[in-house]
């Protein structure tokens, strides 16, 4: 189900980006320059990162009422990275020759069941406050041998207007 949703969001991004006519009275999605750079670098990366960007932004919403998206919550970040990992897993099934160190490591984290702990450890934001993750200490041990030299990446962001 999640991989189907990831695929659907990827299709929406491609269709939206290919459109030359802006729909009236609807939100538009704007990606930063990194999206264009990704397409030049490796098209297989566009699906996972555009899905991440859209899911993070959609989850953050505009609940503060100021018309600007709120900063993403911990749960939003976890969900967006989970969708990116699932989308990457789908890309690998379609073409096992594609490669990306970060997305492969993120998929490894997801598969091991440590995505919440990963987000807390590598992407923590002070506005999240005290984030409790049940398997956090297990993750700290696991990552010592499974994420050696790991560097966090965020390759694309999006905004809704």
Give an overview of the whole structure.
This protein has 7 helices and 2 strands, in the order αβααααααβ. The longest helix is centred in the middle third of the chain and has 21 residues, at 74-94. α4 (74-94) crosses α5 (101-112). It is mainly alpha-helical. The protein has one domain. The protein has a two-stranded antiparallel sheet. The chain has helices at residues 2-18, 34-41, 46-60, 74-94, 101-112, 115-123, 136-146; strands at residues 29-31, 158-160. Residues 3-26 have low confidence and may be disordered. Helix content is 58%, strand content 4%. The two termini are 28 Å apart.
Give the radius of gyration.
16 Å
Number of strands: 2
Trace the largest sheet across and list its strands. 1-2
Main beta-sheet strand count, sense and barrel state: 2 strands, antiparallel
Strand content: under 5%
Q: Could you spell the SSE succession in H and E letters?
A: HEHHHHHHE
> Outline, from the CA principal axes?
globular
Into which percent range does the helicity of residues fall?
A: 55-70%
Structural class: mainly alpha
CA-to-CA gap between the ends?
28 Å
Q: Figure out the total of helices.
A: 7
Low-pLDDT regions: 3-26
Average pLDDT reading: 80
Count of discrete domains: 1
Short description:
With 161 residues, this protein is mostly helical.
């Amino acid at each position: 189900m999640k991989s189907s949703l990831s695929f659907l969001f990827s299709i929406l991004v491609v269709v939206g980006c290919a459109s030359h006519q802006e729909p009236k009275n609807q939100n538009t999605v704007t990606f930063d320059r990194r999206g264009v750079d990704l397409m030049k670098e490796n098209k297989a990366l566009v699906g996972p990162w555009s899905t991440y960007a859209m899911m993070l932004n959609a989850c953050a919403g505009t609940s503060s009422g100021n018309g600007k998206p709120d900063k993403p919550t911990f749960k939003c970040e976890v969900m967006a990275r989970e969708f990116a990992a699932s989308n990457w897993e789908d890309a690998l099934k379609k073409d096992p020759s594609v490669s990306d160190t970060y997305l492969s490591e993120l998929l490894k984290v997801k598969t091991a069941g440590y995505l919440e702990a990963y987000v807390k450890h590598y992407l923590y934001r002070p506005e999240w406050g005290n984030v409790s993750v049940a398997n956090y200490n297990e993750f700290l041990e696991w990552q010592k041998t499974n994420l050696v030299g790991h560097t966090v990446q965020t390759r694309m962001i999006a905004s809704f207007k």
